[in-house]
Specification:
Blueprint: E1 18-20, E2 25-27, H1 28-37, H2 55-73, H3 76-82, H4 86-89, H5 95-98, H6 112-132, H7 134-155, H8 170-186, H9 192-207, H10 213-232, H11 238-262
Antiparallel strand pairs: 1-2
Helix pairs in contact: 2-3, 2-6, 2-7, 6-7, 6-8, 7-8, 7-10, 7-11, 8-9, 8-10, 10-11
């Protein structure tokens, strides 16, 4: 029998159920109740403050790396099944997303393509995941990937052809670039460094061959839009604005892709 009582409810607590507190000990029931009723600490953008690893960012990086390994192990079959091509994506729409988890395995882009995207995803992703929260970080990346491929579709026939394959997480990464600019501005911090990196990559996209600058542009625009919605939503309507903006941008992108494909 335990003669130690919980400081909150004064019930006896066995040694296994005692939890150290500022004064005395608490029982597990009182600790659980206190955790449930305690106010949730939130960031300036309304995301719950969490400790630990950036789960969404690490998951996205893990998927890209695992897919890249399969590109080498399985070979062309894996890439061909998932790569984004406007002509095929019209009947296999999942390619608008899966193409963002593939990377080049040929020429000068081998390894550097994956390496650059994963580095930026890690640096920006973990910051945005903390500031915006997990679901908004995931939505931002995925919808930006979609936006990048929709921009490729919109410009197909002008800059590329319908069977040109496009792969890489660059659309999602540029979406993070766009969002971090807005987030920094919202926090009244300088975004000049990020803008400089965006400008440099924009120049590289036009100078270096085999880089889909269209996907960069589409992802960047989506990132700016969603970043603005997430960062400047009224405090009491953050969830509504966040979900609504994500859904609206997604629907607009789908409509644009469908209409452009129908007019081809």
């Amino acid at each position: 029998m335990s003669y130690v009582r919980c400081q909150r409810c004064e019930r006896p607590a066995c040694a296994e159920c005692q939890r150290p507190a500022a004064v005395g000990v608490h029982c597990v029931d009182c600790v659980r109740e206190a955790a449930r009723t305690a106010p949730v600490r939130r960031t300036v953008f309304g995301a719950p403050v969490r400790g630990g690893r950036p789960v969404v960012t690490l998951t996205l990086i893990g998927l890209c790396v695992a897919s890249y390994v399969l590109q080498w192990v399985v070979g062309l079959a894996w890439t061909s099944a998932l790569v984004f091509q406007p002509a095929i994506a019209s009947i296999e729409p999942w390619r608008y997303f899966t193409g963002g988890f593939l990377h080049s395995t040929q020429g000068y882009l081998a390894f550097t393509h994956l390496g650059f995207n994963m580095y930026v995803l890690w640096v920006l992703g973990r910051e945005l995941e903390v500031a915006l929260g997990r679901w908004r970080m995931a939505a931002l990346f995925l919808v930006s990937v979609l936006g990048g491929h929709v921009m490729v579709t919109m410009l197909t026939g002008v800059t590329t052809d319908w069977f040109q394959g496009v792969l890489g997480a660059s659309g999602g990464v540029f979406g993070l670039f766009g969002a971090i600019v807005v987030v920094l501005r919202r926090m009244r911090r300088s975004a000049s460094g990020v803008v400089g990196v965006i400008a440099l990559n924009a120049v590289i996209g036009f100078v270096v061959p085999n880089i889909a600058w269209e996907a960069h542009l589409g992802g960047l625009l989506v990132g700016l839009l969603l970043g603005s919605a997430y960062a400047f939503a009224p405090r009491d309507r953050r969830a509504f604005v966040g979900v609504g903006a994500t859904a609206l941008v997604t629907v607009v992108l789908v409509v644009l892709a469908v209409v452009r494909t129908a007019l081809a």
